[in-house]
Write a structure and sequence with these properties.
This is Kinesin-like protein. One of its GO terms (molecular function) is microtubule binding. It is found in: Cell junction, Adherens junction; Cytoplasm, Cytoskeleton, Microtubule organizing center, Centrosome; Cytoplasmic vesicle membrane. The protein is of the alpha+beta class. The protein has a domain of about 325 residues: Kinesin, CATH 3.40.850.10. It contains 15 helices and 18 strands. The strands form 4 sheets. Strands 1, 5, 6, 7, 8, 9, 12, 15, 16, 17 and 18 form an 11-stranded mixed beta sheet that branches. Strands 2-3-4 form a 3-stranded antiparallel beta sheet, with helices on one face. It has a two-stranded antiparallel sheet with strand order 10-11. Helix 5 packs across helix 7.
Length: about 700
């Protein structure tokens, strides 16, 4: 067993020698590679710049590309060689570790064998001494058999001691047997370790062979690349020499050209003698050019004058923006296109024109006389729903910051108010686009704020306020002052729905639209017979500071003003028209009182003006969209609408205030909107009217409103 140690050490020494040889070979290859790269750099630097259009330039470029590819392959082979070196280093470390473990095992076995040998020698000596002592004991036994009882007792003690020694000998033999078994297992372990060492040596030999093959392949590729590069360099040098010979030939041909230039120079000298004549002709030409330049300057002056007028218009728009910041009601006008319902003939001609340089001016031809009106913005019939919404979206987003915002559409019947506010499913209007914008803004601020958006819908029909989303749409509601002393108005019993997606918006709009009152008249096939209000409440909580904001967005689609003689209203339609005109007249009285800064403003003369009191009393940002018809037969209504719009534009309400506070909402207000986010049913009414029972509408319509 001790002889295994030197053999293992000798194996480890051989592996170290192999590793050293591989490292020397690797270093030699690296030096040779660097030398080859230096030669390639020299060859690259030697060739002169090829001439333009040389037939060998393309081939030279291809050869350079191939040389770069070969260099990339050499770099890859270097990487493979480094990986092989790393693998050899790892296997060498593993072999050294195995050798250390084998040395430790051999040392332990040697110590164990030495200990067992000592114990075996002690056991043999004990056995030999016992054997040497046995005959006298037997002899004493035989000779003392007839002696006294004392001798008999001594004999018994000797026999007991002999029995004890025999047991010890048996135990020593058992220990010796166990030691022999341990020695045998040590021999087996040594054999296994030798097998592992042989396997590692074979693996190192195989890796060494693979590395030698890779190095030989790299050497061959390197030599081949050097030979090809050298051959290409020779070809390029030959081409350069040929180009040089061509240049020399060209130099020889330049001598006739030089003689030609000399002749030209002599001709120029003769022309200089007639320079005064040429100068006069040049002066004439310059005068003509100066006259043309003066004409161009005059044209530029006209262009500058036009730009100056345009700048005046821009300055006017800036002044209008300043007026808006002071709190004036913003007014925009939208002209609907001429439709086939307008008929044909002189009455269906277009009576509205626009200023091409100022989008806030609209011209109306009324009874042969042009009348101009200046508003904040005018949209032509070509304007899309998105164009109109872009004008009001900044106002809508301020609702998220805690401001009250009101947008209402005004105009005669059939002027397009409902289309602007509601639109169609394919091309929605301000209402749906406003809620979509609010959702996108809420999602962008979701990391810092928590928002809740609730929607209510109501209509004022024949001076009666009705809930379009309630279980009893025909039930009349009243307007009350908030009991918290804030002076704000609210409608007890008005149903609120919490909306969380565009699908919820569509369901609410569909349900509210089915409950709104519309009828056929001579002016409009689907005439709105009531004032529709969409109330959007946005409550927000700043997650970091606890700041709470409450903003309200009122989107109002007013019923169309109409003349009874034109609309052909009779019976209930006549009563509806009378109530509509009365409420719009009350709105005109409120605007007149605000414009003249009267002490008393008659908000309570109509349910419409009373409900819009918050939006018209300085605590809200308000915008009016006036819808007008462009045809000749409606010029009287268009003239009245535009005059009313100008009066509304001159009303100064003052800047809107933001509703924000630190702390939590009151428990009553929390209870009013919290159930809407827990259940799909409408929020509980704050003050239910006495006698109100369960809904009488079909359950399928209610299920449409359940949030998904």
């Amino acid at each position: 067993m001790p002889a295994l140690g030197p053999g293992s050490l000798q194996g480890g020494t051989d592996l170290e020698k192999h590793r050293d040889l591989l490292m020397v070979e690797n270093e030699r290859l690296r030096q040779e590679m660097r030398r080859c790269e230096a030669e390639l750099q020299e060859l690259r630097a030697k060739p002169a710049a090829p001439c333009t259009g040389c037939e060998h330039s393309q081939e030279s470029a291809q050869l350079r590309d191939k040389l770069s590819q070969l260099q990339l392959e050499v770099a890859e082979n270097k990487g493979m060689l480094s990986e092989l070196n790393l693998e050899v280093q790892q296997k060498t470390d593993r072999l050294a570790e195995v050798e250390l473990r084998l040395k430790d095992c051999l040392a332990e076995k040697a110590q164990e064998e030495e200990r067992l040998s000592r114990r075996l020698r002690d056991s043999h000596e004990t056995i030999a001494s016992l054997r040497a002592q046995s005959p006298p004991v037997k002899y004493v036994i035989k000779t003392v058999e007839v002696e006294s009882s004392k001798t008999t007792q001594a004999l018994s003690e000797s026999q007991a001691r002999n029995q004890h020694l025999q047991e010890q000998v048996a135990m020593q033999r058992q220990v010796l047997k166990e030691m022999e078994q341990q020695l045998q297992s040590a021999h087996q372990l040594t054999a296994q370790l030798r097998a592992q060492i042989a396997m590692y040596e074979a693996e190192l030999e195989r890796a060494h062979g693979q590395m030698l093959e890779e190095m030989q392949s790299l050497e061959e590729d390197k030599n081949r690349a050097i030979e090809e590069a050298f051959a290409r360099a020779q070809v390029e040098m030959k081409a350069v020499h040929e180009n040089l010979a061509g240049v020399r030939t060209n130099l020889l041909t330049l001598q006739p050209a030089l003689r030609t230039l000399t002749n030209d120079y002599n001709g120029l000298k003769r022309q200089v003698r007639g320079f005064p004549l040429l100068l006069q002709e040049a002066l004439k030409s310059v005068k003509a050019e100066i006259g043309q330049a003066i004409e161009e300057v005059n044209g530029n002056n006209q262009e500058l004058l036009r730009k100056y007028r345009r700048e005046l218009q821009l300055r006017k728009k800036c002044h209008n923006e300043l007026v808006r910041l002071k709190g004036n009601i913003r007014v925009i006008a939208r002209v609907r296109p001429v439709t086939k319902e307008d008929g044909e003939g002189p009455e269906a001609t277009n009576a509205v024109t626009f200023d091409p340089d100022d989008d806030s001016i609209i011209h109306l031809l009324h009874r042969g006389k042009p009348v101009s009106f200046e508003l904040d913005k005018v949209f032509s019939p070509r304007a899309s729903q998105q164009d109109v919404f872009q004008e009001v979206q900044a106002l809508i987003t301020s609702c998220i910051d805690g401001f009250n915002v009101c947008i209402f559409a005004y105009g005669q019947t059939g002027a397009g108010k409902t289309y602007t506010m509601e639109g169609t499913p394919e091309n929605p209007g301000i209402n749906q686009r406003a809620l979509q914008l609010l959702f996108s803004e809420v999602q962008e601020k979701a990391s810092d704020w928590e928002y809740t958006i609730t929607v209510s819908a109501a209509e004022i029909y024949n001076e009666a306020l009705r809930d379009l989303l309630g279980q009893e749409p025909q039930e009349k509601l009243e307007i009350r002052l908030c009991p918290d002393g804030s002076g704000q108005l609210y409608v007890p019993g008005l149903t609120e729905f919490r909306v969380q997606s565009v699908d919820d918006i569509n369901k609410v709009f569909e349900f509210g639209h089915t409950n709104r009152t519309t009828e056929f008249t001579n002016l409009n096939e689907h005439s709105s017979r009531s004032h529709a209000l969409l109330i959007v409440t946005v409550r927000g909580v700043d997650c970091s500071t606890g700041l709470r904001t409450t903003g309200k967005l009122n989107l109002v689609d007013l019923a169309g003003s109409e003349r009874v003689g034109k609309s052909g209203a009779e019976g209930s339609r006549l009563r509806e028209a009378q109530h509509i005109n009365k409420s719009l007249s009350a709105l005109g009285d409120v605007i007149a009182a605000l414009r003249s800064r009267q002490g008393h403003v008659p908000f309570r003369n109509s349910k419409l003006t009373y409900l819009l009191q918050d939006s018209l009393s300085g605590d809200s940002k308000t915008l009016m969209v006036v819808q007008v018809s462009p045809v000749e037969k409606n010029t009287s209504e268009t003239l009245y609408s535009l005059k009313f719009a100008e009066r509304v534009r001159s009303v100064e309400l003052g800047p809107g205030s933001r509703r924000a506070e630190l702390g939590s909402w009151s428990s009553q207000e929390h209870l009013e909107w919290e159930p809407a986010c827990q259940t799909p049913q409408p929020a509980a009414r704050a003050h239910s009217a006495p006698g109100s029972g369960t809904t009488s509408r079909p359950g399928s319509i209610r299920r449409k409103l359940q949030p998904s």
